[in-house]
Write the C-alpha cells for this entry.
Amino acid sequence: MAQFFEVHPDNPQARLLKQAVALLAGGAVAAVPTDSSYALVCHLDDKAAADSLRRIRGVDDKHHLTLLCRDLSELANYARVDNKQFRLLKAATPGPYTFILEASKEVPRRLSHPSRKTIGLRVPAHKTLQALLEMHGAPLLATTLIPPGETEPLNDAQDIRRQFEHALAAVIDAGACPMQATTVIDLTAMGAGGDGVVLRQGRGDAAVLGL
C-alpha cells in the first residue's frame, strides 16, 4: 500500500520528503510531481528497484530511462558533453526537456540503452522535486508515469493513488502537474558535428532552442 505524502507546492515539508527519501533508499518506487506530468522514480543504483519501475511502467530494457539531476553540473557527471552540447543544455535547463546523451562511466551499464550506450537526462523545474533531489543527494532514475496501454501521462496524485496504490511505495502530492510529457531531444549526433534531433515534442518548446 502506497504511503501518500501531501506537501505544500511552494514550501514542501522537509519531514515528509525525508520519509520519502528513506523509502527510495530502501528500494522503493515512488510517483513524484515534475514540471511535465508525474514520473515514477527509484534509486539509481538499485537494480531490483529499476526492474520494478520498468514493470510498473510496462516497458522493457530498450526503453530509455531518465536520470533526474539537480543541476547541469550533476548532469555532466553522467553524460559525455562537449561545449556545443553544453551551451544548448544550459539554455534549456531547468525545464521540461529530456536529453539523450552518451552515457559516462558513472552510469551503470544495465541502465544505459543496450545497443547505443546512451542515457536520458534532465534537470526539472519543480520545487518539490528539486527539494527531494537535494535531500536524496544524487540523481533519481525516472520514467514518465504513463499507465501500460495508455498514451497520456497522469497528472493527478489521487488518480495515481487509486491506480497504483498496490504497486508503489509512495505518492508525493504537490498538486496537479501539467498533463504533458517532456520534449525529448537526442544530442548524440551533435557530439560528432551534427544537429540535435527532436524525438518527441512535448511541453518544452524545441523552437526556443533552435531545433
